[in-house]
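Table S5 (text form). Sequence records supplied for joint modeling of the four-component complex.
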Amino acid sequence: MTLPKPEDLIIHSLGECRFPSPLQLGAASGEYHGEFMSDAAKVRFHVELERLEGRPDDLFFERAGPRERLFFDPSKVKAAIVTCGGLCPGINNVIRSVFLSLKYNYGVPEVYGIRYGYRGLNPAYGDGFIRLTHEMVENIHLHGGTFLGSSRGPQPVEVMLDTLADRGIDMLFCVGGDGTQRGADALAQAARRRNLPLAVVGIPKTIDNDIPYVFRSFGYGTAVEKAREVIAGAHAEAKGAPNGIVIVKLMGRNAGFIAAGATTASQEVNFAFIPELPFDLDPPNGFLAHLEKRVLQRGHAVIVVAEGAGQHLFGDLPVERDASGNIKHHDIGTYLRDRIIAHFRERRIEANVKYIDPSYLIRSVPANCDDAQLSDRFARYAVHAAMAGKTDLLIGYWHGLFVHVPMHLVTSQKKHLSPKSSMWLSVLAATGQPVLMVNEPVPETTAS
Amino acid sequence: MTLPKPEDLIIHSLGECRFPSPLQLGAASGEYHGEFMSDAAKVRFHVELERLEGRPDDLFFERAGPRERLFFDPSKVKAAIVTCGGLCPGINNVIRSVFLSLKYNYGVPEVYGIRYGYRGLNPAYGDGFIRLTHEMVENIHLHGGTFLGSSRGPQPVEVMLDTLADRGIDMLFCVGGDGTQRGADALAQAARRRNLPLAVVGIPKTIDNDIPYVFRSFGYGTAVEKAREVIAGAHAEAKGAPNGIVIVKLMGRNAGFIAAGATTASQEVNFAFIPELPFDLDPPNGFLAHLEKRVLQRGHAVIVVAEGAGQHLFGDLPVERDASGNIKHHDIGTYLRDRIIAHFRERRIEANVKYIDPSYLIRSVPANCDDAQLSDRFARYAVHAAMAGKTDLLIGYWHGLFVHVPMHLVTSQKKHLSPKSSMWLSVLAATGQPVLMVNEPVPETTAS
Amino acid sequence: MTLPKPEDLIIHSLGECRFPSPLQLGAASGEYHGEFMSDAAKVRFHVELERLEGRPDDLFFERAGPRERLFFDPSKVKAAIVTCGGLCPGINNVIRSVFLSLKYNYGVPEVYGIRYGYRGLNPAYGDGFIRLTHEMVENIHLHGGTFLGSSRGPQPVEVMLDTLADRGIDMLFCVGGDGTQRGADALAQAARRRNLPLAVVGIPKTIDNDIPYVFRSFGYGTAVEKAREVIAGAHAEAKGAPNGIVIVKLMGRNAGFIAAGATTASQEVNFAFIPELPFDLDPPNGFLAHLEKRVLQRGHAVIVVAEGAGQHLFGDLPVERDASGNIKHHDIGTYLRDRIIAHFRERRIEANVKYIDPSYLIRSVPANCDDAQLSDRFARYAVHAAMAGKTDLLIGYWHGLFVHVPMHLVTSQKKHLSPKSSMWLSVLAATGQPVLMVNEPVPETTAS
Amino acid sequence: MTLPKPEDLIIHSLGECRFPSPLQLGAASGEYHGEFMSDAAKVRFHVELERLEGRPDDLFFERAGPRERLFFDPSKVKAAIVTCGGLCPGINNVIRSVFLSLKYNYGVPEVYGIRYGYRGLNPAYGDGFIRLTHEMVENIHLHGGTFLGSSRGPQPVEVMLDTLADRGIDMLFCVGGDGTQRGADALAQAARRRNLPLAVVGIPKTIDNDIPYVFRSFGYGTAVEKAREVIAGAHAEAKGAPNGIVIVKLMGRNAGFIAAGATTASQEVNFAFIPELPFDLDPPNGFLAHLEKRVLQRGHAVIVVAEGAGQHLFGDLPVERDASGNIKHHDIGTYLRDRIIAHFRERRIEANVKYIDPSYLIRSVPANCDDAQLSDRFARYAVHAAMAGKTDLLIGYWHGLFVHVPMHLVTSQKKHLSPKSSMWLSVLAATGQPVLMVNEPVPETTAS
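The corresponding structure-token record, covering 1792 residues in total, follows.
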């Protein structure tokens, strides 16, 4: 990951903060009170050091939190929230907490939900706005999905900005992944060009947990929980048949966090494949020989593969992209299944091969407690930032602390699972799989 | 369903019961004691009457239960249990309870588990027997799958019988569906021909709940529970996108009980298709027009389809069979998906169509409480029957009572979900779907 | 249980059915259609026979179902629903399905929910009516509790009837236990005296599963599921400490179905106590000696006790009653705990005794799939009955079929768990506990 | 929290590391390999800064991880693991991963489990050692509790050390809270005095999440998950009765993390009380008036109270301690319940007050995925430390990284939930409760 320079970390501001915050916090209050956060409060990024003498310069991000003075007069604010991209556990919690925080903490009179992602800002679709009420959002956090609906792909920035301006929207909360945040970035920049005092605040949503400066994104943990259930079923299937082999395909376009997390949590996986690590199938050191050995020794095997893994195996096949611009990966799951079947058939070894693709099932469930808490906080910190007139930023998170991350830092790269990380070492220990299943020379990293 | 004659209900017996039961029950004990069950105790099959005057002859089945006198000397019994066919929640509970009942209630010294279904009885495979111990089975009921492993398909009857005879097995418990029970029937008959005093007792296993004389089979309810979870996810996906349409394929080769149960329980399904009911896709009264109307009115739709539904739509395409002799159904799920996509594309109506096939996920989980209780009881009643020297029978169940069903009654037909049943009426009410989506004339029943 | 005579089974009718049903069912429709149910359709009660020669007279109940002709003009009906007594999984499903069936199947224009049980019919409390809408009830089945609120105890019948008459209510659905149904019975009788054409239909609600003629009540299965979770925790606690003994108190005032069901499902209980079976604590054959033996042999023990068990141990202590008239049982859970602690202390044997009372936790959860289906059907059958002008009846259920049970049959007695039943035999087998832990002579049954 | 000086962070070592690690990691391996960790690798403690100019000196902890050279010859190691104190989700995962890591990663031939906590090291109890095998531990992570059993309280250090020395134990893994780690510290020091090369490594176990230098302890998240379920039930009960008030008592002796986490996750709590914040009950600003207002406005209320909250309300009542030396708190739950009942009775306002104490239920369940991963890693890092001859340390954790914390740092203080933290601000926002419910002057912090 390329590291930013200190000057890259400056947060855009809409202007002077002239209004006192209605929040009942004392800047210098006693031991038992929360307090306002100063713009001078920072959070360090680096905590790892190889050696003390080589200590790198610290990188400090602006800390998120309620500001004592606001750019907007809360009693006159019109706010809107939009959710984009695929489902992710916790989106409804975010919608709800943004609404509640605006309405009850700040006294904002009008909060709108935009239907079906950015296209709700394009009048050509006619999806429109919903004026949110307490009754509408009261119980939505108990359900999966997104109350507002979602869609993929960009919309014309000027059209969207026209809609927002016509409606008199002061702040827009954009819940989505890197594509969504690119759109948010563009909106914020366009507003700046028009001198429109629009606060655009991004709330990171990535079930794959692959947005940089967000060490843990909401929904990810719930997805791992569901993925573990799937693996438990796969394990039962594998053990239930002679030489049972079950392949589970999990989400993870560019990063293997779900596959790795579910593997470590389940402890029932024998081989895990992630986008970050290349692997071969053929001899001498490819996967199939290792699988055969395992099956002959133990009578069954469970394989987990992230959807973005092993794309190098498809060679020069052309790639397609979905409406969000994401690469449509070649189907590594069915490819592995077919290669495994062919291998055992050729070797005249019985094998009962099954394939499980839980697909949407791990992303459409309600948030578990960690994700419920995370999404609640992302939402509330986004509101604090917007009320203070900050814009073109994303709420980041590490070490239990929330920060302001300039939007451009998260739209140009993905976070990856390092093969040197504690998480991947846990996977190796839990599976007992070889550290690398490649035939030399090792190709370059396959993650895109 | 063809009804048997009273003489068809006689249960085969291995001979005179000369040993007293070690169970501490009094035949004429007081109010607080359980008691032995006489062979004269019966359970009625019919409870529905259209009109009192037209009352049909009652049909009475022998009631299951512990007998006061046993054919086998418990202290010398060698018993074996085999599990066949696909996974089903509760198999491990059955294995465990058969073992515990034999060992602790009857004092049987040797209980064997046969590996990987009937092929474990065929020395050609070399899978062998496991001598079961308390430690082995203690916690297996907490996990999905089958501790013994399973396989599909028949094995040569005489070979299996040789194996059982060589091992000195006195009683064999066969856990499986109709194919398995056909095998059990053949084994019992072959043993009779050899004058081998082998008790063969079938324990019905069918996640589809389609074995006759078993009103509720273990595992079915758990599968419905998991299917409901899948539907909840599908519902979130459907509502999360403009004109979201999600198709969920559920188990149910010949009977729609899982699809119907999950639909009624979830209350979030708009169209449910089962093998028992034909349907058309095209105008004037086919499904696609109804779906289009629903989507245009409400913006989303959830469709549940049993895997055996709509096979008539494939016309004269040849059918294949799996190792168990089950028809390999044409894939109605992807067919529906493709037809829906084509329909909306042709009509130039936006539709976001998703397809979910949870496949093994709904059958590889541990038993819920109802299934845990059911499987426990099926197991214990099977043991009672075998100890009393009964053979060539299946444990049946209705009205909270367990009965002895001659094996031949369950191997020739399937149980179906009647479109006139309370269950199907509930589906119609919950979905609001048309009673029939066919273009006249109505074809004959499609269930096989 | 005292059996009724055939003349006791006649269902009260408000009068001639002059209106055609709007339901799209054909009385003589084809194979694929549901159909209307005739009043002549009956369901047998008895299925068990000791011996064929002694066959008792059959008892036939009127079968529930949609009638072809209705007493009420659906387009003019005002209906109301009230929920009384303690929470039970599935109440919200009942409310929702009554509403949906009335509104969408029958086209009833006005459906009201009554707040907080019968007191909502007493203007003195001012709780009032809610006019139900689709939006209100759409998702309530996904949550535990009762959307309408509940309360205990009776209200003046004439006052309630005045309220209903003033509002022009044509039919009242009473969801509750035996106390509630006594109130419903009184209301129906009072309406008859006034010649008010009010249909009063009871929907049985009893988490304890103790209403006669209802073989399985909604909510019971879900409660067992939660109780099993509690027992799993208790088991972990018991094994986690030297001589760990954990007592779990479960619901079950008069009937031990929850305790027995959870015990059989869990297979981790060593002693289960229910109201139907007396037991002693002291030597020679009391519980404490058996417990001591178990703990010394195995190092831990799990005990499940229904709240109504062992009341005879409190001797002549006076009993109190709650607002519903239910006996407030002496606290057998803490009593057992204290006696166990004292016993081991006295015997100078280490014991780590813990007590778990999950109380409300097993009744406030959403309905599982079986209960969701059951409550849906109870609701819809109640609606069918009311539309046909039937009154003063409860919806009964056995053998998968729903029936009309005259209210007076269920208000005078409770259903009990027979110690001779398959269920209790399963408990004895699963726990290994002695058949009876009493010192002679055996006292009379303790169930009230 | 008092911060240590750099010299306080030095980790004790048993001596020179003469044996190469059998782990297949390269110190300077390529991009796709994990690698050994040098003793020079450090992890920063501070990430928050108020202002850049006031930047405090960094505090660096030794980073945990596999060392390239080991103190012990793995092929000759005898290791032991002991679990102490109350149950906590994940203990079995720790036991299992310690065993697997020792056996399969390092090739350690003998691993022992010590029965029932430290008393298993005291021959007076005769509980003894279990030699662990793969079969024993294979599935234990799927179940709650501790496979080894546990107990509270200290044992004589020299006696324990004698046992370990007699058995030739080289390394002891101590899973427990601060009391346990005090014992581990004493053992390590005593071994040092005897020149016994015994590695004592602590693995922090605290369901309350209150051990310093462990930002997130395993089991805590699972407990919050269960607590949220309890609150959902409480919410249903509260809304189910007129003026329903439900009090839920949750774990949390000294720290309110469980109460705060469950409150934020559930979003259904109206008042939360934690040990860190004092509160009054009486006017003018005490809790009861705020509760009354809430109930009159909204008709129900849910209250969550940590067991250690509000102890100041008991004034000078003497305190007792349990075998672990933990203060036995006065029962704030029933006290609140009684005061609430009295308040509403006195004010002649109807209130239906219920009290739920889930007690053991939230700690005896299996670990969720996060806790499964955490406990796996704590276990494996503890093994790495011990193999390298490090002793008298605890595995610490923050920012996704694991560190070595000198034992003495964690035995003298507890971690607390700061009222200024993001977590507590989320509680205030979610509940809407007043920032402080005290009558001046504010008492000192009540946390002990």
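Note: The first strand of chain A starts at residue 12 and ends at 13.
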